Amino acid sequence: xxxxxxxxxxxxxxxxxxxxxxxxxxxxxxxxxxxxxxxxxxxxxxxxxxxxxxxxxxxxxxxxxxxxxxxxxxxxxxxxxxxxxxxxxxxxxxxxxxxxxxxxxxxxxxxxxxxxxxxxxxxxxxxxxxxxxxxxxxxxxxxxxxxxxxxxxxxxxxxxxxxxxxxxxxxxxxxxxxxxxxxxxxxxxxxxxxxxxxxxxxxxxxxxxxxxxxxxxxxxxxxxxxxxxxxxxxxxxxxxxxxxxxxxxxxxxxxxxxxxxxxxxxxxxxxxxxxxxxxxxxxxxxxxxxxxxxxxxxxxx
Length: 301
Ligand SMILES: [Zn+2]
What we know:
With 301 residues, this protein is α/β, with parallel strands linked by helices. The protein contains 11 helices and 8 strands. It has one domain (3-298): Metal-dependent hydrolases (TIM Barrel, Alpha-Beta Barrel), CATH 3.20.20. It has helices spanning 10-16, 26-32, 52-70, 102-110, 140-151, 163-172, 196-204, 215-218, 226-241, 267-276, 281-298, and strands at 3-5, 34-42, 87-93, 113-117, 155-157, 178-179, 208-211, 245-247. The strands form 2 sheets. It has a 5-stranded parallel sheet. The chain has a 3-stranded parallel sheet with strand order 6-7-8. The chain is globular, with a radius of gyration of 17 Å. Zinc ion (ZN) is lined by residues 93, 159-160, 181, 253.
C-alpha cells in the first residue's frame, strides 16, 4: 500500500525553529510506511510584509541538507511514489513566496515544487485568506500565477484560502483544485475547515482533500484521537468524497497532535480504525494514497 501525506511544516521547523524537534523524520516515515511525504516551504506569518521568498529559500536549503546527509529524495512527479520507499513531494504554503512574479512559479517548479497553497493566513498578491472572512475572489495577478501553475501541472491548494477564492477555483480554474490540510466544518466549526457544499464541489470537480490531524480542526479542542480523524474521513466519504480524500497531517506545524497519532509512524493506526469501521482494503488503499495519486493523474501527470 502506498501512503501519502500532503502537508507538514518540517522544513520550516528545521530552518527557522531550531529549538523545536521535528516529528517527521526518516525513521518515523519508514516505521509508518509513508511512501510520499509532502514537505512545504512555508511563507511565514507576515504575508507580503515579511521575507517570504528568503524564508522559502532557507527551508529549501534545509531540504538540500537532508538530501545530502540523510538521503531524503524529492520526486519529480508524484507518481514516482513507491511502496517500501520514502520519497518527498515539495510544496509551497503562501503564494507571497512567488512575490507576484510569474517567473517565480517556474523557478520553484525547477526546484521540484508540485503544489502551491495560494495563501496562508494573510492576504497576498494572489488572493485572500479564510482568516478574516474576506468576500473577495482571486485577484487578477492571481489568475496569471494560476495559469502558469496549470501549464506546469502544479496543484492549486485551497487550504487557508477564503470561500470566494475557493469557488473561483472550482468554477474557473482549468485544473481541479485540492485542499492539502483541511477538515470538515460540519464536524468542527472552524474557519479553516470546509463546508459540506465545498466538499461535494471538490469531489464533483475531481479535486482532493487531505484531512488535517490538528485537534483544533478535528474536535475544536486540544484533544483528539485517530477516531476523530476517521470521523472526518467518513464524513467526506458520505458526501461522495471516497475517491477524493486522504491525509494532510500538518505535522510539525501544529501545537499538538492526536494522542494516538503523534508522528508519521502512527499513520497505520488510522488505517486500522478504518478497518474496524468496515472499510475494505481497496477503499483503505485509496484513502491511504491511491486517491492522491489519481488526483495528480487528473492534472496530467
Ligand atoms: Zn497550514
